[in-house]
Specification:
The complex is a heterodimer of chains A (363) and B (349). Chain A has 363 residues and is of the alpha/beta class. In chain A, 38% of the residues lie in helices and 19% in strands. Chain A has a domain of 44 residues. In chain A, strand 3, helix 6 and strand 4 form a beta-alpha-beta unit. Classes of the chains: A alpha/beta (363), B alpha+beta (349). Chain A: Pfam families: HypD.
């Protein structure tokens, strides 16, 4: 695909790898924030080609993985109600709630549909005025503008049978939470390029400064990831800790002003629980009062839903970069993509699933 | 060290007490349903489930026998219809045992309200496909279910063919050293169908690759080569086909990623939809395991056949990592090509 294939060129990748090897004089631990980057690293075997001692810690940037169990249980409860059409991105369907997943709710008769855009769900609502249509609005700053636009449209068009089950999360507060963890080993970040293409880069220099870490805004193709790693290691070797943009073809400094304006209209900052990590203050978005009638949690009373995580699952430690997926005793044994204990094993962007799918042959 | 050997589901079929969509995805869930519920239910009357076609002896002849159900949505898609699939798919299941397909049956499950014109288009497509494949549709059945109980037309076809003496093509014969060949590019059928699926329509020039492959197989056999394994990578794609062969024969498979032929239109659609082209269905391709010293002859014969012009070698069968398929990436790393589980789940972003 034009503008993508160019960023997978093996010769250029080898050249970048040579530069990384030449620049590296000691061990460094970098965290790629976004699950898409984790996927790319494992998919292309990039982690195997880095200098010994350069470790990639897989961050919490998989929206499916960090959506808390209580929200998933609420989704299951809403989806199971008569008259509801529950729409979701595909990879949320197999995320286990406390008891079952959306696939099972569907096999028991619920109307659960996979859509590629929340606007498709709004179209379904328009075409089914006697049904309640709910879209599962999860994700980072990346997926939020489309959800904001959809709610905005629903209000403008007067489509009252549409609502959004919101569990949006934000990257900068997560970086703070990781850096303030007493067990933190992260020395530099590859920030999530597509988050920054919406939000811009202005939130990050203060984090670089406060925590003394380089933050390199990074894309997702192999060359993008390698360039992000190269810049982060170069900074570390030179004792610098700055925010730099290694993905300028998609990330203007100011992000996308139109999207940000829409987000500011529809969403407000709230505390948010992250699956496996816990509640991070100011780390999420919820609908503002103006749009409260489109909040599925408000429309369907699901406040009584309580959830408990599997005691065996260590996805929280994986998401914080404290252990690698295969260091969890459940990995590949009682926890597989087939029977996931935690969400990191479900989404193809989840660190555990990426390890399971793409891990090189041991030895 | 990760124990890959131990990576099977410890509690097959306990994921859910009900049938879910993934049981029909052609991946691990489908395989477990057959292996742990359907075949055991048959008891002594059953066979093995190692491949899509049985080879049995009857009246002194070696017969290949297969059956296949078609529930594709939509029924018409670029490059074909459920009718083409129902004939070619069953012909191909016979061909993958090295059989010459002869006779087919067809059973229709029709939903009330389905336009007869649609049914007419489907039967005409079946007739044309059967004629092209040189097989005859000799028996069948028709049932009607209530409106809302089906998706228009479901089709089941069974097929019978004969296998020549000396032809022993089966998954367990895959051997270390074998060359792994593919007859053409990957993912066309799955992408063509997805492009017309309700709610997902997108513009693409990709058409289904649906085609009968027994002529291609005959050309490969005519080289005199000892073909070890043939498989059509349908549901679950190349990933499922190779994992099944690797598991059955207890061998490993090593692919070279840059040699995997994925057309631009398929790669683009998969990129946008978050799908792995190696897990996308094909309906006119075969993968072959062939002795290395015979691979060049077989490849030449394949390329000379209209359904094998894009044939190429994609990898090697190895003794290491039995049951596992591995690809060397363009950057020089490796990745495991795992067995798809159930339905492919589009990624969120």
């Amino acid at each position: 695909m034009k503008y993508l294939d160019e960023f997978s060129d093996p010769d250029l990748a080898r050249s970048l790898l040579r530069q990384i090897h030449a620049a590296t004089t000691r061990p460094w631990a970098l965290m790629e924030v976004c699950g898409g980057q984790t996927h790319s690293i494992i998919r292309h075997g990039i982690d195997q080609l880095l200098p010994d001692g350069v470790e990639m810690i897989h961050g919490p940037g998989c929206p499916v993985c960090v959506t808390p169990l209580s929200v998933i249980d609420k989704a299951l409860a809403i989806a199971a109600r008569p008259g509801v059409i529950f729409c979701s991105f595909g990879d949320m369907l197999r995320v286990p709630g406390s008891g079952r997943d959306l696939f099972e709710v569907r096999s028991a008769g619920a109307d659960v549909r996979v859509v590629y855009s929340p606007l498709d769900a709004l179209g379904i609502a328009r075409d089914n005025p006697d049904r309640q249509v709910v879209f599962f609005g999860i994700g980072f700053e990346t997926t939020a503008p489309a959800n904001a636009l959809t709610v905005h449209q629903a209000r403008r068009l007067g489509i009252r049978n549409f609502s959004l089950l919101v569990s949006h999360v934000l990257v900068p507060p997560a970086i703070s939470a990781i850096m303030e963890s007493p067990r933190c080993r992260v020395q530099g970040f590859l920030a999530a390029g597509h988050v920054c293409s919406v939000m811009g880069t202005s939130e990050y220099p203060s984090l670089s400064e406060k925590y003394g870490v380089p933050i390199v805004v990074t894309g997702f193709e192999p060359l993008d990831v390698l360039e992000g790693i190269r810049q982060a290691i170069t900074q570390l070797e030179q004792g610098r800790h700055e925010t730099r943009n290694a993905y300028p073809r998609a990330v203007p400094e100011t992000g996308n002003p139109v999207a940000r304006q829409m987000l500011a209209d529809v969403f407000e900052v709230t505390d948010r629980a992250w699956r496996g990590i816990g509640t991070i203050p100011g780390s999420g978005w919820r609908l503002t009062d103006r749009y409260r009638e489109f909040d599925a949690e408000h429309r369907f009373d699901v406040s009584g839903v309580r959830a408990a995580e599997s005691a065996l699952c260590r996805s929280g430690e994986v998401l914080q970069g404290l252990i690698k997926p295969h260091e969890c005793a459940a990995f590949g044994r009682v926890c597989t993509p087939r029977q996931p204990l935690g969400a990191t094993m479900v989404s193809s962007e989840g660190a555990c699933a990426a390890y399971y799918a793409y891990r090189r042959v041991a030895g | 060290m990760i124990d890959f050997e131990g990576w099977t589901c410890p509690a097959p079929l306990r994921d859910t007490p009900h049938v879910v969509a993934g049981h029909g995805g052609g991946g691990a869930m489908s395989a477990d349903l057959v292996r742990h519920l359907i075949v055991p239910g048959y008891g002594d009357a059953g066979g093995t489930a190692e491949r899509d076609c049985a080879v049995v002896e009857a009246g002194g002849a070696r017969l290949a026998f297969t059956t296949d159900a078609y529930v594709v949505q939509p029924m018409f898609f670029p490059g074909g219809s459920i009718g083409d699939l129902a004939v070619n798919g069953t012909v191909n299941d016979l061909a993958m045992a090295g059989a010459t397909p002869l006779f087919l049956s067809a059973a229709f499950i029709l939903e009330e309200g389905t336009p007869l014109a649609d049914l007419g288009r489907i039967t005409a497509a079946m007739g044309a496909a059967a004629t092209a494949a040189g097989v005859r549709l000799v028996t069948g059945d028709t049932k009607v279910v209530g409106h809302g109980s089906g998706d228009g037309v479901y089709l089941t076809t069974s097929g019978v063919g004969v296998v020549a003496d000396g032809v022993e093509i089966e998954p367990r014969r895959a051997a270390a050293g074998d060359a792994v060949l593919i007859s053409g590019d990957l993912g066309r059928h799955g992408v063509a169908v997805l492009s017309r699926r309700e709610g997902l329509e997108f513009a693409t020039t990709v058409a289904s690759d649906t085609a009968p492959l027994h002529g291609l197989v005959a050309a490969m056999l005519a080289t005199g080569a000892d073909l070890h394994v043939l498989r059509d990578p349908t549901r679950g794609g190349l990933a499922a086909a190779l994992n099944e062969i690797a598991a059955t024969a207890r061998v490993g498979v090593e692919l070279t990623e840059r040699d995997l032929p994925v057309p631009d239109g398929v790669a683009d659609a998969c990129h946008l939809l978050g799908l792995d082209p190696l897990q996308v269905a094909n309906e006119g391709r075969l993968v072959a395991f062939v002795r290395p010293d015979q691979a060049d002859d077989v490849l030449a014969a394949m390329r000379a056949h209209p359904y094998g012009t894009g044939a190429r070698r994609i990898g090697t069968c190895v003794a290491g990592h039995p049951g596992m398929v591995v690809a060397r990436t363009a950057l020089g790393g490796t990745r495991v090509i795992s067995m798809p589980i159930g339905e492919q789940l589009p990624r969120i972003c």
